[in-house]
Design brief:
The complex is a heterodimer. Chain A is mainly beta. Chain A is built from 2 helices and 11 strands. The longest helix of chain B has 13 residues. The chains are: A mainly beta, B alpha/beta.
């Protein structure tokens, strides 16, 4: 990807261009066949018996699902490209899970923001409109297999149009609210929205 | 809060190579002069951008190895044989060359004097880099904070910063313990296996002392160490991790 810089690194030629469709790789990203793991702390291991998922906050009525209830909801297969702020992109991943639209169906709220919260204390914030209208899922299968703990199992958020830190691992619920509330990385130097195509990696980008 | 100064955009800055130091057969330290560098905290990283003559660019993130020191920034880079950027940085760069940097980045995997101790650092291979910045920050300040490093390397020749760590190990309150997982020099009496709960218990500090724990290394290493620490009773929120896969770099 050529850009405005007139800077040249002597002797650098680059090797990876042409390997992936540039229209699918945002600026500053490189494509990897691997699935790197990034987490700020130990991986939580929650048994399905003790797992539940809640929608709380400014809603007419709090909703909750046990694993048994959640896994009985209609699912979709979601083929997407992933973009991590640490520069890797992984193309053509396939997930299975429940659309956030399904979970919010029938809920009345005036909230404009949603806070994902997770086992381990992780949070991340988004405008509510970024997780509705077929843009976000809560997934529990990756590549046809149950989602591994290090990748966020039993269930994680999937918001593929934003950098991957906006998709909380080990998700336990969504809190709907009228005020924005920057999450874990958002208070630690990372962009509040995180659009990879705008390269919104850090504060001020 | 220190981060407030970062609210402006982190711009790309030219960085000139002042020195290249061979650490091990696979790793080198690149010493950069970055005019106007705003300073950093131990544990933070930078983005590096390389630009080819035709305008093609590649970016990667690297942890900062050095304690804050004016306009000087050191990165230690492990050469990944199938990588695009790391072989250039380790094999091609020489003093006088320039690249572009953007940073410092990250506000969580950070230790500074105000965090205090005791501190337990657990490194796997080149995962030592951000932890070395923490050790160097402590030493530069003449701090007596209790700090223990448990460092897993494949062999004695693969121990990054070996001589400096040997020198510093005499420092009061700083304890360095190695484990060599693949091969050991003759007469080696130290650990010779992957880090496990028993090693972590022997190296300490005990969970009851509530140490600040920082773990950095390849994903399977970090997963195993963090899980063992939790089993030993350390609170998950006291354990900060940074993981990397050997990907593309």
């Amino acid at each position: 990807m050529a850009r405005e810089s007139s800077f040249v690194s002597r002797g650098f030629h680059g090797r990876r261009r042409g390997e992936a469709d540039p229209g699918r790789v945002p600026p500053g990203q490189y494509v990897t066949p691997d699935f790197p793991v990034l987490s700020a702390g130990p991986t939580p291991h929650r048994s399905l018996e003790l797992w539940n998922l809640s929608i709380i906050g400014e809603v007419d009525e709090t909703r909750g699902w046990t694993w048994e209830e959640f896994s009985a909801l209609p699912t979709e297969e979601i083929p997407v490209d992933l973009h991590c702020v640490t520069k890797w992109s992984k193309l053509d991943t396939v997930w299975r899970g429940v659309s956030v639209d399904t979970l919010l169906d029938g809920i009345e709220t005036a909230a404009e923001y949603v806070i994902q919260y997770a086992d381990g204390g992780y949070t991340t914030n988004l405008p509510l409109e970024d997780v509705t209208g077929g843009k976000a899922w809560i997934v529990y299968e990756y590549d046809g297999e149950p989602l591994a703990p290090e990748h966020g199992g039993p269930a994680r958020m999937l918001v593929p149009h934003l950098y991957f830190w906006k998709s909380a691992k080990w998700l336990r619920g969504l809190r709907l609210q009228s005020e924005d509330d920057p999450g874990f990385w958002e208070v630690n130097g990372y962009h509040n929205y995180g659009d990879p195509w705008q390269e919104q990696r850090y504060w001020g980008d | 809060m220190a981060g407030a100064a970062l609210l402006g955009r982190l711009t790309w800055q030219p960085a000139e190579v002042a020195d290249v130091v061979t650490e091990t057969p696979r790793t080198k330290t690149l010493v950069f002069e970055v005019p106007g560098w705003p300073g950093h905290r131990a544990g933070q990283h930078v983005d590096v951008r390389l630009t080819a003559e035709d305008g093609y660019q590649a970016e990667r993130s690297y942890s900062i190895a050095s304690a804050p020191d004016g306009s000087r920034v050191e990165l230690t880079v492990e050469r990944l044989d199938d990588g695009e950027v790391s072989p250039y940085l380790t094999d091609e760069l020489r003093p006088g060359d320039r690249i572009e940097l953007r940073g410092p980045i990250g506000g969580y995997f950070v230790w500074e004097l105000s965090v205090g101790g005791p501190v337990l650092l657990v490194a796997g291979g080149s995962g030592i880099v951000p932890l070395m910045a923490m050790i160097r920050t402590r030493v530069a300040a003449g701090s007596g904070t209790e700090m223990r490093l448990l460092f897993s390397s494949r062999s004695w020749d693969d121990v990054i910063y070996r001589d400096e760590l040997e020198r510093l190990a005499g420092d009061a309150g700083l304890v360095v313990t190695h484990t060599l997982t693949r091969s050991q020099p003759p007469g080696w009496t130290g650990y010779a296996r992957r880090v496990d709960a028993e090693i972590l218990r022997e190296v300490g500090p005990r969970a009851g002392e509530r140490p600040h724990v920082y773990v950095c290394g390849p994903t399977p290493f970090v997963e195993a160490v963090a899980e063992a620490l939790v089993q030993l009773g350390h609170e998950p929120r006291m354990i900060k991790t940074e993981r990397f896969g050997a990907t593309g770099g």
